[in-house]
Amino acid sequence: MPSSPLPSVHNNPSTLQAWLALIRWKNLLIILITQLVVWACVIVPVSKLWKGVPALLLTPLHFSMLATSTVLIAAAGYIINDYFDIRIDLINKPDKMVLETHIPRRMAIIMHSVFNVIALLLAGYVAHQRSAYEWLLLQFFCTVLLWFYSTQFKRKFMIGNVVVALLTALTIATLVAYEPALHLFIKKPIFEKESSGLLHLNPLALLSMYAFFAFLLTWMREIVKDMEDIKGDAKEGCETMPIRWGLKKTAGFTQALGIVALLPLLLSSIALLQTAHYLLGGYVTVTLIVPLVYWLFSLQKKATTEHYARCSKQLKWMMVAGIGTLIINLIAEWIQLF
Question: What's the topology of domain 8-184?
Fold first, then answer.
């Protein structure tokens, strides 16, 4: 606990504003929108665009419960992260702190537990519909992983970044795990042509590619955020990648991850264009490949907090643009029908 009083933030926000800031409501909204787009643009159309697919488990009610569960687990993760990071945040972002200035730490830890319990109950209800209680292990794993991330992994070399990236990918994997209809596509090819001539993109392959892309971009973003926060992390004895390797070497590693993310995008774009998926192939090229190439060249132009903050935001917007691939794919599928 810091001995000096914590500064006030956001011009003395209301209690509601303080809680919204604590749980990162904008990030939660992105998580919710991502799952909603996956459900509405990939899962729901499966029963209409593919033959022999059984009724979906993720009805509007069940999807809403599962999405709420995911958002609550993420919110609890943000709370526990700030709970253990007061000293670091006092150095890195004192103007954004709300714990103890507007929200008591005791109340925060109580709400962390309440959110997790409600999340597990909601997911448990959905799993109960198929008596597949082992699915609930996914949510339990996320809650435990978030706790250890906040208390231990975040301050360790590389592992904290990988954990956050994994949790991001799991927001997609959760919907895949809870929808048995998607399991039928495990052994199907990436592209499948019907006798009528319609060419479909395997929905499970599409979601796998997006989850992989989200994993890598989140990993890159977490590293860049560590580069941005190097001053406060160093004072608290953290062993992040920029502290151990230095900014230049860390930036080089991040660029290497970017190239790993870029190559599948290039191959996917070529394959899409070759199979006449011009709309989706063009979208991937313009909104993902071109911005990522620009980002790779611009990362090492400066070594300032402001520059790294800007690079972090650019990666977030690329992830949002990635969600658009699911919408564009649905549009392309329906265009084939007319």
Answer: Tetracycline Repressor; domain 2 (1.10.357)
